[in-house]
Amino acid sequence: MAVRPSLAHRPMQPDAQATPLLEDRALIETPKVPRRTAEDGYRPPSRRGKRAAVAWLEPEAVKQLGIYAIQHERNVQDILVEAINDWFAHKGLPRFDPSS
Predict the structure, then answer these.
(1) Distance (Å, rounded) from C-alpha 76 to C-alpha 63?
(2) What is the residue extent of each domain of the chain?
(3) CA atoms of 21 and 28, how far apart (whole Å)
(4) Residue 76 and residue 82: Cα distance in Å, rounded?
């Protein structure tokens, strides 16, 4: 357990050499990094040429979807792609399933 210093304790003043001068601070400060976009950043091959479509679901629905995926040894991505492609087929729209 660490021992607390007494209330009368005054820490030593920092050394004048340890404090960087104004000219030296520019060398210490990190330059701002520009934001990376999908075009210049890394994107896994499975996501190239694709965009995300997001749906906000109740926590119970997300949990149920995850449990189903685990029980059937699938991933949620494949289940959602199957569901969307089935909806496309039901509406008479072309499917975008890469396996068909």
Answers:
(1) 11
(2) 56-95
(3) 10
(4) 10
92 versus 46: the higher-pLDDT residue is 92
Identify the burial level of 95 via C-beta atoms within 10 angstroms of its C-beta, where 0-12 means exposed, 13-18 middle and 19 or more buried.
middle
Backbone angles phi, psi at 18, to 5 degrees: -75, -25
Print the SS3 string covering the chain.
CCCCCCCCCCCCCCCCCCCCCHHHHHHHCCCCCCCCCCCCCCCCHHHCCCCCCCCCCCHHHHHHHHHHHHHCCCCHHHHHHHHHHHHHHHCCCCCCCCCC
pLDDT tens-digit series, residues 47-62: 888 888 999 999 999 9
- Position 40, amino acid: D
